[in-house]
Each structure stands twice: as C-alpha cells, then as structure tokens.
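In response to the reviewer comment on reproducibility (Comment 2.3), we provide here a single inverse folding case reported in full, input and output, so that an independent group could reproduce the run without further information from us. The structure tokens appear first.
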C-alpha cells in the first residue's frame, strides 16, 4: 500500500491524542472526602477489572478512529488483487499471452491489449509489493521462465513484444507449475494477462483437470487473471487458402482462393479495397462484402510471365487490429501430393486410397503408396506429405518412432487409425485404449465437433460438414494429452490432435472407415474433406515455397539462417523472426508465415467457463477494456472512512451506560436490600473517613 500524500505519516503520532486527553483529564481531578462514599468504593473495587477493560477498549477505538482519519487524508493506494492484509508473496509469476489477437488496439490511444495489460500489471506490482518479491516472467511464444529485476521493465523486454503466434494457455499454466515445483517458490502469486480467446484456452481439452489437481495440492498459490475479452469493432480479416500459378498464351497469373471475413450481428454491404503485392509489384481492386464472409475462388492476379516463383501479400485497409489485415503467400511449381498408407487390412486401406487418389485440385498431381507395417521402413520420408498409419504404434525408442517424430517435426502430417488389437505403446503423447461398441439397437453419433478451425471446419462458403450424421458402431478410446476435435456419445474423444511439442500435424482418429466400425466410407463427404485437408496441410511443408504459421520453432533450430525476403521490411533479429508474420528466405527456400487461423475467431470463453476451468483454486478475475484508463491500483480511502465510522460506533456502544431496573417497593413504601435488610437498619456502622473524587 502507498499514499498519494505520504507527508501525512508525520502526523501519525496524533493518533495518541485520545490517550493524552484521558491522562490529562485523570490528573486534573481533585479529591473530596465523603464518608458515605465507602459503599460506592466497595462496589467499584468489585467491578474494577471489567471497568478497566471497558476503558481500554474505548481508548483503543478512539485511537483507531483518529488513525483512520489520517489515512483518509493521505489518500491510500492498494493493489486491487493483492488486497490490504496479505503482505508481499515470496514470488510473483507473470504469464503473458502474446498471441496475435492481443494486438487489438484502442484507435483513440493506439494502445494494444498487450501493452495496456502489461502497463497495468507493472504498476499494480510496484504499488502492492515493490521489490520485496522475486519476479518471474513466462510468455506464451517462448514458454521459458525469465527472472526479471523490476516490474517496470515488462514493456521493454523482447519476451513481451508483439507476435503473430497463437497462445496455448494450458501449456502456460503447465510451465508455471513446473517452475513452482522445481524451484520451491514459497508463497506465490501467479498473474495472467489474456484476452480469453477460446482457441487459445482450449476449454474442451483434457489438460485442465490435471492442472487443477496439481495446483490444488500446492500451498500458498494465488491466481490473478487480467482479461480483455472485448472484441474488435468493425474488424476485417483476410486469409489466403490456395495460390496457383497459371500460364495461358503469352500471359501468366496467380489464382488465389481468399476469404474476407468480419463478425457483426447485422451486416450491411460495404466496399472493401484490396491491395495485392507480388514480388514488390502492387495492384489494387475493390470488392463488396455483403454478409460476414466473402469467398473469392481463383481470383486472378496478373504477373510477368518470366516470374516462375516468388512471394506476395494481400492487404486490407487499417482498422482496430492490423494483425489480420495482411496475409502472406509464396508460389512455385507445386510438388506432387504424395500420401503413404501403412496398413495390413485391405478393408480399411481401399477406402482411404480411393479418397486420397481422387483429385481435389485438378492442376496438381496426386499419388498414393500402400505399404504393410512390415515394410514401414520404406516410407519415402522426403517426398510424402501425409502418412496414414493403421496398426500398432511403434515402441518408444525404436528407429521407426524416431523417424515419425522427425517427420512430424518437419511440419508434415501423420494420421493414426486404431489397430484391431491395441497395446500400451505411446507416441506423440497419445496411445490407444480399448474398443467400445455402441448399443446394438442404435449406432453412436458425433455429438460435438470443432467447426471453426481444423479438419472438421466449415467449408469456405460457411456450410457445415455433415459430421453429425455419421454413425459410429464402435470406436477405440484415445488416451493421453491431446486436443479433441470431435466427440461421440458419452463425451468420448473421436478425433484428437496431439498437443506434444512440434506435432501440430499429428491426429488420432478413434474409428475405422471400413464396414462394422463407422459410416465414414459409406457417406464419404466427411472422410474426403478430412483427408484432403490434412494432406494439404502436410504439403505446405514440401517444395521450395512453403506456407506456415508463426511459432517459436518454425524456422528450425537455427533461425539465423533465414532473413526477410522483402528487402524493405523492418529489420528483425533472428530470435523474433519466426514469431512474426512475413516471408522469410534461406538459400532457394521461401517460407510464408502467418497468424494461425484460430486467431481470427472472436469467440471468447465466458466468465462461467473461466470459473469452471479454475474451480478449486484461489483466483481473482479482473475484466478490463481498452477504453478504461484506470489503474489496477485504486484509492482505498473509503475503506478507512468506513473503518473510522465503525470504530466510533463501537466506542459509542461501549460507552453507553447500563440500563438500571426500578427497585421493588413494599407496601409500606420501603424496599429491602439484596440481603433482605430494611433500608433503615438500627445497626450503626463504625465511622470511616472516605475520600471521593469529582
């Protein structure tokens, strides 16, 4: 706690005024001897202890009232999270969401959610604990603990700068848990800055239960959540799904599949300027956005016929969030879309091969190789965009397991289907459980699936895939640390993406396409869309021109080998390069990095969901917005004013004289004393000299 008028502390001795006045009044009294006072004296001696306690309480309350008045005049400040009585914790951990959506700004001030939150947290820590606690920073982009000296440096650190990455909030909590456990941090306050974006919090994932249990077992850990869930107003976003170079006669052009989206309740038609830059050459056009989404298929952008490969971007006009107004792309001769199926069951292999061989894009070449599990070592690791594995998982430590892990780390896709006889082998943090069958009279259906992003997302025109009409007669449980994308009856995961590091393209499907397991092969649409999406995701990391999403390890172990392809781009150090959107080059390799698609979704978790995720923990939630310029540290003089009023009220109640009952009267008008003796006794007491004070 601090004071806006600290000079008032010199007046604190005035709180002793009630005691001084009492002592002066006590020594001013003069004694008057009065013989009849002996009876009052005896009664006073009987009640001396209680009377003294009463006087001490009255003096104490008067002192507290005067002290409270002095603190009101001093205008005290206190951190809204740490409170007034807890003292400084041993360690303060600051968890910062550096995802792309945190760069939404207040147009009036130009301050982003990230900057406003860091500024408020730094001021609150300074006012509440100062330098008495050890400070540790963990950001969502790097996930590594960083000790810091002062909270004021939060805005100046590279680890708190803006990024175009996604955030994994459960992983952020796990990093904090690991640090607390390993370093025995004592009483710890964990502060989290986030915009509560649904895709970052993964509220439907299976990691929160384990995190709650682990934190509940720790003593003295408190959580303070500063959140900015306010969506961007009138915000437009652009995405490019596909880029193809085409020649016709003496002309060449790029065909782009792009989407412009917004999220408003009552959309009105607006004209949107579009700007295309290809290898530095700029062209512009205007399109009309009538609804919340506009999909442009094979939009032609003319280029020079001699331009065989290169890079470009699509720009929208500036708005409250500039991060989703630009999308980068690269182009080159596309590599063949080669998929490999590893399976010993022809009944499952054939529908998979048929779906993958049917071309989604007629301009590209599709090839599929089928191998039995005994020949898995023959997988063409360098050219395959997708590996479908239907069989027992390789044992951890095997050469094949290491090859699959290296393949997934390179950004290609791996899709696992369950074997008929599951075992306990684990790979990518997941393993197969037991087969479960639906009731004989009715097949299970898919009760929930994620349709905003991923393999089961809605189509480009916003239509939903018919996932809910699938029938699942039996499925194999999926056990481990993964992100569910679909669930069947009973909340059992059906499609799961691995949450292990460097395995964002690894999926586990808990059923088979063949008869007797599901209707995937019979219905066809869902399986076709799912397989081709995972194939295209893996193909983005083949060839010399690739697409990717900003992430810490996207440029490999040595990002210093890469540099921005646009010579006019601002200089960026090698550690920040993989965290920012743009086109990077290394030799003849081009890599376009963009924000992950989930960052464009404005959906946030509700306050009720947040309380469910943190149930059982000691936490406080403070919701802020960019228009609110108040500090997290507020004046609390009203608290002291209330304390003064309460002290004076209690002093008045204690000082109030006791209520006396009227004495009983006999018929002759006399009342006996407590012993039954008449008030006028014939016994004569011995004379005694008594003194009284007035």
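Designed residues, in position order:
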């Amino acid at each position: 706690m601090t004071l806006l008028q600290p000079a008032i502390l010199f007046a604190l001795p005035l709180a002793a005024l009630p005691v001084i006045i009492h002592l002066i009044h006590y020594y001013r009294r003069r004694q008057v001897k009065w013989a009849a006072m002996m009876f009052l004296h005896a009664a006073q001696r009987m009640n001396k202890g209680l009377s003294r306690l009463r006087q001490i309480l009255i003096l104490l309350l008067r002192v507290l009232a005067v002290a409270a008045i002095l603190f009101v005049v001093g205008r005290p400040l206190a951190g809204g999270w740490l409170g007034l009585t807890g003292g400084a914790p041993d360690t303060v951990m600051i968890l910062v969401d550096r995802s792309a959506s945190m760069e939404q700004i207040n147009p009036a001030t130009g301050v982003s959610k990230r900057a406003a939150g860091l500024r408020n947290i730094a001021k609150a820590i300074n006012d509440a604990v100062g330098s008495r606690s050890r400070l540790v920073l963990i950001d969502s982009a790097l996930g590594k603990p960083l000790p810091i000296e002062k909270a004021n440096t939060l805005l100046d650190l590279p680890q708190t700068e803006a990024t175009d990455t996604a955030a994994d909030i459960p992983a952020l909590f796990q990093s904090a848990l690991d640090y607390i456990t390993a370093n025995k941090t004592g009483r710890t306050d964990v502060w989290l800055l986030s915009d509560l974006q649904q895709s970052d919090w993964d509220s439907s994932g299976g990691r929160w239960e384990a995190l709650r249990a682990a934190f509940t077992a720790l003593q003295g850990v408190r959580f303070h959540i500063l959140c900015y869930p306010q969506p961007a107003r009138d915000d437009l976003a652009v995405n490019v799904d596909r880029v193809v170079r085409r020649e016709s006669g003496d002309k060449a052009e790029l065909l782009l599949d792009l989407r412009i989206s917004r999220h408003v309740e009552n959309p009105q038609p607006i004209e949107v300027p579009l700007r295309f830059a290809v290898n530095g050459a700029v062209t512009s056009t205007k399109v009309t956005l009538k609804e919340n989404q506009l999909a442009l298929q094979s939009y032609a952008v003319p280029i020079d016929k001699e331009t065989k490969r290169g890079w470009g971007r699509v720009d929208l006009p500036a708005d409250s969030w500039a991060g989703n107004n630009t999308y980068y792309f690269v182009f080159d001769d596309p590599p063949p879309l080669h998929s490999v199926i590893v399976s010993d069951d022809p009944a499952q292999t054939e529908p998979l091969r048929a779906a993958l061989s049917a071309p989604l894009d007629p301009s590209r070449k599709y090839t599929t190789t089928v191998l039995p599990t005994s020949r898995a070592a023959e997988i063409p690791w360098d050219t395959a965009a997708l590996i479908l594995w239907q069989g027992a998982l390789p044992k951890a430590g095997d050469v094949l397991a290491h090859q699959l892990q290296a393949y997934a780390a390179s950004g290609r896709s791996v899709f696992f289907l369950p074997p008929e006889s599951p075992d306990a082998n684990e790979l990518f943090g997941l393993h197969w459980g037991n087969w479960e069958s639906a009731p004989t009279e009715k097949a299970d259906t898919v009760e929930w699936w994620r349709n905003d992003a991923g393999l089961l997302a809605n189509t480009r025109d916003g239509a939903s895939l018919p996932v809910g009409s699938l029938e699942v007669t039996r499925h194999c449980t999926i056990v481990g640390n993964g992100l569910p994308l679909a669930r069947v009856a009973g909340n059992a995961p059906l499609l799961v993406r691995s949450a292990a590091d460097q395995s964002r393209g690894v999926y586990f499907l808990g059923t088979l396409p063949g008869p007797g397991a599901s209707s995937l092969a019979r219905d066809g649409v869902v399986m076709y869309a799912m397989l081709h999406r995972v194939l295209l995701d893996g193909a983005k990391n083949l060839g010399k021109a690739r697409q990717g999403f900003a992430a810490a390890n996207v440029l490999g172990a040595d990002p210093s080998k890469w540099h921005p392809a646009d010579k006019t781009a601002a200089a960026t150090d090698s550690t920040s390069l993989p965290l920012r959107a743009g086109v990077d080059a290394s030799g003849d390799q081009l890599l376009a990095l963009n924000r992950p698609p989930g960052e464009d979704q404005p959906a946030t978790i509700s306050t009720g969901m947040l309380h469910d995720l943190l149930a059982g923990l000691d936490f406080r939630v403070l919701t802020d917005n960019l228009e609110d310029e108040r500090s997290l540290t507020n004046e609390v003089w009203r608290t002291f004013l209330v304390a003064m009023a309460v002290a004076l009220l209690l002093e008045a109640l204690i000082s109030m004289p006791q209520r006396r009952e009227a004495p009983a009267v006999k018929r002759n008008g006399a009342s006996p004393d407590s012993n039954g003796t008449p008030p006028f006794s014939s016994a004569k007491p011995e004379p005694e000299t008594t003194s009284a004070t007035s």
